[in-house]
Write a structure and sequence with these properties.
It is a single chain. This protein has 141 residues and is mostly helical. It folds into two domains: 17-28 and 100-140, no CATH class; 30-98, DNA polymerase, domain 1 (Orthogonal Bundle), CATH 1.10.150. Helices cover 48% and strands 6% of the residues. The protein contains six helices and two strands, in the order βαααααβα. It has helices spanning 31-48, 55-66, 69-75, 82-91, 103-111, 124-134, and strands at 18-21, 116-119. The chain has a two-stranded parallel sheet. The protein starts with 17 loop residues before the first strand and ends in a 7-residue tail after the last helix.
């Protein structure tokens, strides 16, 4: 596999784009997932009226069966206002000041001359805040 310019050897496909997951891939900060998990549990209890003692088991079950707790809630028939969810579970719950610029990662990303796209289970606002804090906003399409 080749990345970037030039021609690939015969029989090897040239990579045309790079897809990178945001959270726990571009940065590692154990406080952020812990904050999100606490906020998810609070949301489920407060906004979906799930008894507090059932929330941890439910979140784990939904996460493992559906990939994310949110996907599991939706698949289980809960009506979720996505903007409200992301506001409470990400924007208000996360201390974004924990994220610092990463010049080494920035240089690496800038050296890869193919389009790069960021993926996240969160919303665009969360992605933009994280990328801004990491100094990587202009590295992605």
């Amino acid at each position: 596999m080749t990345i970037g310019g030039g021609t690939a050897p015969k029989g090897v496909r040239r990579v045309k784009a790079l897809l990178i997951d945001l959270d726990d891939t571009l940065y590692r900060c154990h406080q952020i997932p812990a904050s999100c998990r606490s906020a998810i549990e609070a949301y489920i209890h407060q906004h979906l009226s799930v008894p507090l003692d059932q929330v941890p088991q439910l979140t784990s079950q939904l996460y493992f069966s559906h990939g994310t707790t949110l996907a599991g809630l939706v698949a289980s028939g809960y009506k979720i206002d996505y903007d409200h969810w992301h506001q409470l579970v990400h924007h208000e719950a996360i201390d974004y000041s924990l994220l610092k610029p990463d010049p080494v990662l920035r240089n690496l990303l800038c050296s890869i001359d193919i389009p790069k796209f960021i993926l996240t289970n969160a919303d665009r606002k969360h992605a933009q805040i994280c990328l801004d804090r990491l100094g990587l906003s202009d590295c992605f399409k």
